[in-house]
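Entry: Probable transcriptional regulatory protein GNP93_26355
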Amino acid sequence: MGRKWNNIKEKKASKDASTSRIYAKFGIEIYVAAKKGEPNPESNGALKFVLERAKTYNVPKAIIDRAIEKAKGSSEDNYVELRYEGFGPNGSMVIVDALTNNVNRTASDVRSCFNKNGGSMGVSGSVSYMFDSTAVIGLVGKTSDEVFELLMEADVDVRDIFEEDEATIVYAEPDQFHAVQEVFKNAGITDFTVAEITMLAQNYVTLAEDAQAQFEKLIDALEDLEDVQRVYHNVDAED
């Protein structure tokens, strides 16, 4: 199970190296979530989730506040949530989630990334059936046995609990995300190494060195697109 967490870590580390880009993407995501309902995380579950994830990426409070204030105002920026599915080198699988105010631009940009980097776009459902939507929460300071006991006492079911690189990782159903976090917060744990709902592949593949290099170029190109928020795939991170 650890290989899946490895992919999340690698992706997060890569994103951390380009903080201004990540902060800009979070600004849009927070704005869209705040526009969906009340611009208050206590009454807006979508906004609460985005803010929890933003905390693990150290998004500055100023960016969060600016996005929420914009949502409170008269801004007419309208964003559409889109998902693209495709194949990378050697049949590797890729899912791309985007938020855009220009659907034609985003579709063209994503398609171009695939075509220029040894991949191809697929139809809706061609890849996603091989992934599971999963809540992932990581913390330090508690062993897997201690985490299991906390969750059991609170009667909260999860998919898996394991330890990796000094962190304890919990996989749960997406609708259990906040319930799991509340258990930890009630135990005095407020800082998480990861707190997000992601798409985990059911099976991971390892690419040969040349295919791996081309695959990484594809992922980097997709993540560099302004409209792309998240990229998921089924390729093992290199050891």
